[in-house]
């Protein structure tokens, strides 16, 4: 048996400047191997009972060795491709005789033993080609030196290997349930709900299991490391390290290897410039997302795009070992957007429109008579709304509208206008829209740039307040209303009061103060004042001013909260 150690040592000597012991399951040494798995990244030795990550250059095979010390020993070897398909085979090496060729009984020199090892093919036990997570399992294996040879013919890639002589007790990979499929239980326009069976590793063995869901638009993944490799694709140039050189943390990071234990003092290596003689790869950003949800086995994926196909994968992760198992993934296409009904606009008639939060609304205007231009009045009652206008498919207008806006559109005989309204993220939007080929008689009331109501604090008494507001050059009717409000004036009430489209017809008659006509050709003097009387001492009042246009359409100024003096 000592000869096995000599043989493996002769293989390791060219790879390292210092002697490295053969990994075994001997107590303290094995614990060291588990803590320092990074030592084996660039080694030809696979430690017993620890998963390693390593790399392959295209068309460049690599060999790894694993020791089985006694006959009739269980053996399990698992290979996980993390990017490209792999070709791999496991063989049992034929070892040279223990005595020397001259019959002296002394061991042969190390370099001669190494030559004998590499020249012999060995007995092939298992082979595989593909990108599945595949494993070799034997309940009784002979002692000896096992060789794992891997090859990638597509591109440079990396992979993971796990080998153990105690597969029954280790159980590092979570077990799949009897039904390993991910089920799609419901599909919406922007959501998909997934469900799957619980792992027996969590329910029976009481091991800590976390489920991670991966969503993308390309394909399902066979392993979590394949998904994470895709996620780590950089939008900058990736520099591939040269074979045979020691790898820096930068090299491992760009091959998708974890760099948590490699220290933060190498952060300046994050974006090195490509060096002469090294291959440069372009890694575009990919649309992929991973969400870990704990022990839940039902999850709703949200914020998806309508009428889009998505692929869903679920992985069980043993949080003690950080090793994972994949469910059989699923895919689904989200539902199409509900077809919008198009609202027909009548020439010169105001139309009330409600757009849902982040929703869309379509309106159509088809003038009956020939026209040179179309005037479009849009009154966004509360928040900003995106407006887009097309004439016979040609884009004429695309703007965000807040308050009242007027647009002049060039006409065309028999032209048809399609108006698209898109709501914002805050909440539902209310609008009043008027389209006409005769704007002179049907215009919305014009507003000054400043629609605030000014209150004069020095003129405030126990029973009255004096306010002022700006007018325009057009003669318009202004109506002022008051409403007593208490201390519990809620945010919802404040939001409602901001609605400029709520006209005087929504107010109680007892709240009306007065109506009057007012205008001034000199905008500098277009200011009017009014004193509201018969108020109660120490009370708060909400004041509103409405300007009324042709046809009775009104617009509300910004509300003003005032308070009378308590003592006079």
Automatic annotation (TrEMBL):
Residues 174-324, 445-554 form the Fibronectin type-III domain. It is found in: Secreted. Residues 95-118 are annotated as: Disordered. InterPro entries: FN3_dom, FN3_sf, Ig-like_fold, NDNF, NDNF_C, NDNF_Fn(III)_1, NDNF_N. GO terms for molecular function: glycosaminoglycan binding; heparin binding. SMART domains: FN3 (SM00060). Secretory protein that plays a role in various cellular processes. Acts as a chemorepellent acting on gonadotropin-releasing hormone (GnRH) expressing neurons regulating their migration to the hypothalamus. Also promotes neuron migration, growth and survival as well as neurite outgrowth and is involved in the development of the olfactory system. May also act through the regulation of growth factors activity and downstream signaling. Also regulates extracellular matrix assembly and cell adhesiveness. This is Protein NDNF. It comes from Rattus norvegicus.
């Amino acid at each position: 048996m000592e000869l096995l150690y000599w043989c493996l040592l002769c293989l390791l000597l060219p790879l390292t400047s210092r002697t490295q012991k053969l990994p075994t399951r001997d107590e303290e040494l094995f614990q060291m191997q588990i803590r320092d798995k990074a030592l084996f990244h660039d080694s030809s030795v696979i430690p017993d009972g620890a998963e390693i990550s390593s790399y392959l250059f295209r068309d460049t095979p690599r060999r790894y060795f694993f020791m089985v010390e006694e006959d009739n020993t269980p053996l399990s070897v698992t290979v996980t491709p993390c990017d490209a398909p792999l070709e791999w085979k496991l063989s049992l090496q034929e070892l040279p005789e223990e005595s020397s060729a001259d019959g002296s009984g002394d061991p042969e020199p190390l370099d001669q033993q190494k030559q004998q090892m590499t020249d012999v093919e060995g007995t092939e036990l298992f082979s595989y080609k593909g990108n599945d997570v595949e494993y070799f399992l034997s309940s009784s294996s002979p002692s000896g030196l096992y060789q794992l040879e891997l090859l990638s013919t597509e591109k440079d890639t990396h992979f993971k290997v796990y080998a153990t002589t105690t597969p029954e007790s280790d159980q590092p990979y979570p077990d799949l349930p009897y039904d390993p499929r991910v089920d799609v239980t419901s599909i919406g326009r922007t959501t998909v709900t997934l469900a799957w069976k619980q792992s027996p590793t969590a329910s029976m063995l009481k091991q800590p299991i976390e489920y991670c869901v991966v969503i993308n638009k390309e394909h399902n993944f066979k392993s979590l490391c394949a998904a994470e490799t895709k996620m780590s694709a950089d939008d900058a140039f990736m520099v591939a390290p040269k074979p045979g050189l020691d790898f820096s943390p930068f090299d491992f990071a760009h091959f998708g290897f974890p760099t948590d234990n490699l220290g933060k003092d190498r952060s300046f290596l994050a974006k090195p410039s490509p060096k002469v003689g090294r291959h440069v790869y372009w890694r575009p950003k990919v649309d992929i997302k991973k969400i870990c949800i704990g022990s839940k086995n039902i999850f709703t994926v949200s914020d998806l795009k309508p009428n889009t196909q998505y692929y869903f994968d679920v992985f069980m992760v043993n949080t003690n070992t950080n090793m994972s198992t994949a469910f059989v993934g699923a895919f689904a296409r989200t539902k199409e957007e509900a077809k919008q009904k198009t609202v027909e606009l009548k020439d010169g008639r105001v139309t009330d429109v409600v757009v849902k939060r982040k929703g869309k609304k379509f309106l159509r205007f088809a003038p009956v008579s020939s026209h040179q231009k179309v005037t479009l009045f849009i009154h966004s009652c509360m928040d900003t709304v995106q407006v887009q206008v097309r004439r016979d498919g040609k884009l004429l207008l695309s703007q965000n509208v807040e308050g009242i806006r007027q647009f002049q559109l060039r006409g065309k005989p028999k032209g048809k206008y399609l108006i698209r309204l898109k709501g914002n993220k805050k909440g539902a939007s209310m609008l009043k829209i008027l389209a006409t080929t005769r704007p002179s008689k049907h215009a919305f009331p014009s507003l000054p740039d400043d629609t605030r109501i000014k209150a004069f604090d020095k003129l405030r008494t126990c029973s009255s307040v004096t306010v002022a507001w700006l007018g325009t050059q057009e003669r318009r009717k202004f109506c002022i209303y008051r409403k007593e409000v208490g201390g519990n004036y809620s945010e919802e009430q404040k939001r409602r009061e901001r609605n400029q489209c709520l006209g005087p017809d929504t107010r109680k008659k007892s709240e009306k103060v007065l109506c009057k006509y007012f205008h001034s050709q000199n905008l500098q003097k277009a200011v009017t004042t009014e004193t509201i009387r018969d108020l109660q001492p120490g009370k708060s009042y909400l004041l509103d001013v409405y300007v009324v246009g042709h046809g009775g359409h009104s617009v509300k100024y910004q509300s003003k909260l005032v308070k009378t003096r308590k003592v006079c």
